[in-house]
Amino acid sequence: MTVDVEKEYPQIEILAVGAHPDDVEIACGGTLAKLADLGHSVGIIDLTDGEPTPRSPDPETRLAEAAEAAKVLGVQKRITLDLPNRKLFDSFEARVTLAKEFRKYRPKVVIGFGDRTPMASPDHWQAMQITDAAVFYSRLTKWDETFDHLPVHTIGRQLYYKIAFEPIHKLDAPGSFVHDITDCLERKLESIRCYQTQFPEEKAYVFERVKGAAIYLGATAGYGAGELFYTTRAVGTPDMMQLLYPDDRVYTERYLRKISRVE
User: Fold this and answer.
1) How do strand 226-231 and strand 175-180 relate by DSSP bridges?
2) Are 192 and 261 spatial neighbours (Cβ–Cβ below 8 Å)?
3) Which residue of 19, 64, 226, 256 lies most exposed, with the fewest beta carbons within 10 A?
4) pLDDT score recorded for residue 169
5) How many helices (H) and strands (E) does the chain have?
6) Which of 81, 115, 84, 85 is nearest to 98 (CA)?
7) Parallel, antiparallel or unpaired: strands 109-113 and 226-231
8) How far apart are CA 20 and CA 64, in angstroms?
9) 43: which residues sit within 8 A by CB, 6+ positions away?
């Protein structure tokens, strides 16, 4: 019998996936905060609880930090999966576990890792592969028992992020864009500061690196601060002028009037 997910689980429009608590905040916390401010439903899925780590006394402490960070960003739902930190691998079981969450919460957009992170956790690369597979698994029919009879769900768009203080280089992707987070940069940094066990005083340089990366990326698009995303499809538009001048009210209002007439 198919589960009635609409009754049991609220739809989350945008789900961001990380390997550990703090990955998403560092990569795209400003974007999640801005989307939440705009009225979109936003969620985070951490594939592991991130433990053990050198400075955290127990998993409960890290989970409390993650909950506080989500609150700062305005994230409505944070899910921690029971996959193993340091031993995270792209396996069938991991793919199914994540795909079940996609089927429950029915996101329109999934955001996740887009590259390896040399000299950092190999879990990140595994997380990318798990996320890619789960997006595909989410829409597969005739596999009801495998997915606990959760209905299929097709995710319309998938985006890739990079950890903010990794070396900046372009991915081999069909498209990319910078999202303006000027008004949310400080909240992004505040959310990262919630992880006191991960970023004690001697690692305060991390915040300057994250801030510097955001300012640099924002400057490439003419913003005060930004976050870079890569797309799985080319970025297209039905109205070139509205795309090129998104802040020009004349073009925006003209485009909206056109859309309303079509509808």
Assistant:
1) antiparallel
2) no
3) 256
4) 76
5) 9, 7
6) 81
7) unpaired
8) 13
9) 12, 14, 15, 16, 75, 76, 77, 78, 79, 105, 107
For the full predicted model, state whether its pTM sits above 0.90. yes
Distance in angstroms (rounded) separating the CA atoms of residues 139 and 132: 12
Cα–chain center distance at 220: 21
Contact 13, 158 (CB under 8 A): no
Largest separation between any pair of C-alpha atoms in the chain: 59
Averaged pLDDT, groups of 10, the chain, 263 residues long: 89 98 98 97 98 95 98 98 97 98 98 92 97 98 96 98 79 94 98 97 94 95 96 92 82 71 60
H/E segment holding residue 124 = helix 123-137
Burial of 144 (0-12, 13-18, 19+ CB in 10 A): middle
Strand ranges, E, within 76-215: 77-80, 109-113, 157-161, 175-180
Inter-CA distances, 115 with 98, 159, 169, 171, Å: 19, 12, 10, 8
Token pair belonging to 60: 């409960």
